[in-house]
Amino acid sequence: MTFHKHMYREMHWPIAFIQATCLLALATSWALSPLGPRPLGPSDYVIIVSSLAILVVMLFTKWVLVWRLSGPLFIVVITLFLAREVSHLGPHMHMWGMIATSLIALGMSVFFVETRDYLISLAAVWFIMWDVDTSGAEPLFHSTFYIYVTVTTLIGACLNITHVRTMRSSYRLMQNYKELSQIDFLTKVPNRRSLTGAIQDILEKIIKEDAQDCWFLMLDIDNFKKVNDELGHARGDDVLINLAQLAKQEKAIHYVGRLGGEEFGMLYKNHSEESVLRSIERMLTATRHYAPCPYSFSAGLAKVHPTDDLSSILSQADRELYIAKRNGKSRAYYQGKPFCVIAEQESKGAERGILAAELGAET
Questions:
Q1: Global model pTM greater than 0.70
Q2: Which letter does DSSP use for residue 154 in this model?
């Protein structure tokens, strides 16, 4: 999720409420003030309809860019309406014009997700309100007006910059927390929580989209304890990282995650049984050619059906994995039968690789 989309989700309804309140306040002030423009002219109706249309667009649009660009446009339309009212207030228009403009400039400062959007809107507000006739005003008004423009601009910009920086910091913290809670620190692949969530999503998509040929593969690194005990935990970490990288590089794999320890889970979506077989073979071949420490893995494959739930998928894959371990390792099982098996002499190559790596470490 991008920062702008995050801000849209957080500020969509508060901004809509503020906009509706502004329209209601302007309508009320026009109704109560005997000095307002009467009757309303064509330009007044255009402004009113435009403000309502923009409010509806911002309220219902799902496009963040449209929502973001509509904000300054709404401010401009509201300011035009306000300028029409102020221009009819006679000798009081100068005082009310400055007060109203300052209120808009400061009030809108926390409702923009980018400072440049705020500054553009602020410039438009002052430009529109500046057009109010001040020929009859006292000389002191002009100097006061410039002071108000400067001070209000500085305060509004400061508020907006502080607001945007705070929201960006909050967004970064949220993203960091999300990564820490969903990504395995060592292998940089999703953790068990994320993986199980992905399985749930796949189940929902199978039902909604009638997706075909979805598979879940659970694999466990063979002799991993031996790697840790004889070569050290640093080498064991290297093996885990290597397997995670192999899975991420495998294009057929839709999603990969670490279930815990030396166990990983992988999702295949819209791939045939043959395609999954070739994917497992490629990974098994790559593991036994890992130069620092050749290794292998055993795996259990489960077909994902619309009637399955998370527990049944994990249990089925786990049963297949157990059978693969019991029948010689370095293989994958599906429906109780060998699905992918390394030749016996190649299967032992991984153990010889561990021994060779151990001897190399000693020398």
A1: no
A2: H
